Amino acid sequence: MKIIDIGFNNLVVAEEIQLILSVDGVSIKRRIAEAKKREMLVDITKGRNRRSVILLKSGIIVLSSVNTKTLVRRILKEANEVGA
C-alpha cells in the first residue's frame, strides 16, 4: 500500500486515486460544484490557491494546493521506493 502526502500532512492511499487534474476548465469546476452539493468534496487547501483536483475511486473530490506534477512525482517516488 502506497501512502501519498497530498498537502498539509493529509494522506491518501495511492491506489484510491483515479484522476489528478488541474483546476482549469469549466467542466472540472462544474464537477466541483456538484460534489459540494452532494457533500462529496474535501478541501484541504487551508485557504490557499487550488492547484489540483484529486478524484478518488469512491467519487470523493479532493481539492489540494499541491501542483499536479508534484503529486505525480510523489506517487512515482513512493512506487520506486516500495518496488526497490
Automatic annotation (TrEMBL):
Tree of life domain: Bacteria
Alphabetical list of InterPro entries matching this protein: RemA-like
Name of the protein: Extracellular matrix/biofilm biosynthesis regulator RemA family protein
Protein's organism: Candidatus Clostridium eludens
